[in-house]
Amino acid sequence: MAAPQPIVEEELAIPSGQVQLRSFVLGQSANVSLSIDGRKHTDKGFTVYLIRGDVSEWEKVKAHKHFDHIVGFQGLKTKAMTHSEPLPEGRYTLAVANTENLMNTMVVAIHLTIDPIGGPPKAAASSPSASPTVPLQPRGAVQSPLCNASETTAFGCTVKGSGKMVALCLTTRPVGASLTYRFGKVGTIELEYPDTTTTAATAFEFEEGSGNHGNESADLSFSRKGFLYTLSQGSQGGGPDGQGNFIEARPFAEVSVKPPKEKALRLECEKTVGDISALAALFPKK
Fold first, then answer.
1. pLDDT of residue 175
2. pLDDT digit string (tens) for 142-197?
3. pLDDT tens-digit profile of 7-62?
4. For the chain, what is the HEC assignment?
5. For the chain, what is the mean pLDDT?
6. Within a domain: residue 121?
7. In which domain, by residue range, is 20 found?
8. Is residue 193 part of a domain?
9. List of residues 6+ apart from 197 with CB closer than 8 A
10. Rounded Cα–Cα distance for residues 19 and 58 (Å)
């Protein structure tokens, strides 16, 4: 007897108010099993739907229109869920949304398998909306103009007061995902790194840190010609103000450039897209 076939097996970081969609096709009837476990910032819960149809059906959900979904796989303000149910052939879309956490990016672990009823599947199930191991932005997310059509924007922003842009562009490859850092304007790239194609974990360093009162950050860094470049994103400034009041942590993103033996130059980001913390899955834990 064949083992159930894994369709989605990921740990996803989903920013506040955003969704991750995973579409797959059943070539014949199959038992579908879903397990979702909240790993970080899920204490208020999150939303789960298994929708009949492709990723475009999510637009109906956002518009509060009627949409066809499998009730048994629905989770509202859920912190974890496990459910199995036989489903007929057709296309389905799993939607996991960070609807309850107003400040932080949540992290959830998803395990979705199918077990065809009556023998091997007529057509292999697929997940065209994303790679099974690489975190991507939700469908409809803003793409940085510095990233190519074949790339996904993992992070992007405009440098405040300059009009120049920063982008981390993600490319999924059979041997591992790669990242490309670009700085400049459309048609005038001042810095691109790395110079040759290599895996993200080889070219960059990744680090996450958290403190009290909602202060946290994810940092991605690399060195080039003696300069240290660091992209940071998270929340900061939270805590007591000394007058009996509490200040909520505020989102921030910045790029710092540290020349040899000199202080770092910090560039504040605005119009930020993407989420650096979502790249954690590309870097093996030390």
1. 58
2. 578 898 877 888 899 999 988 899 999 988 765 568 899 999 998 899 999 998 77
3. 888 888 888 888 888 888 888 888 999 999 999 999 999 999 999 888 778 788 87
4. CCCCEEEEEEEEEECCCCEEEEEEEECCCEEEEEEEEEEECCCCCEEEEEEECCHHHHHHHHCCCCCCECHHHCEEEECEEEEEEEECCEEEEEEEECCCCCCCCEEEEEEEEEEECCCCCCCCCCCCCCCCCCCCCCCCCCCCCCCCCCCEEEEEEEECCCCCEEEEEEECCCCCCEEEEEEEECCEEEEEECCCCCCHHHHCEEEEEECCCCCEEEEEEEEECCEEEEEEEEEECCEECCCCCEECCEEEEEEEEECCCCCCEEEEEEEEEECHHHHHHHCCCC
5. 82
6. no
7. 5-116
8. yes
9. 173, 178
10. 9
Domain holding 45: CATH number?
2.60.120.680
- Hey, what amino acid is at 82? T
Q: Is it the case that residue 125 has pLDDT exceeding 50? A: no
Q: Is 226 within the bounds of a domain? A: yes
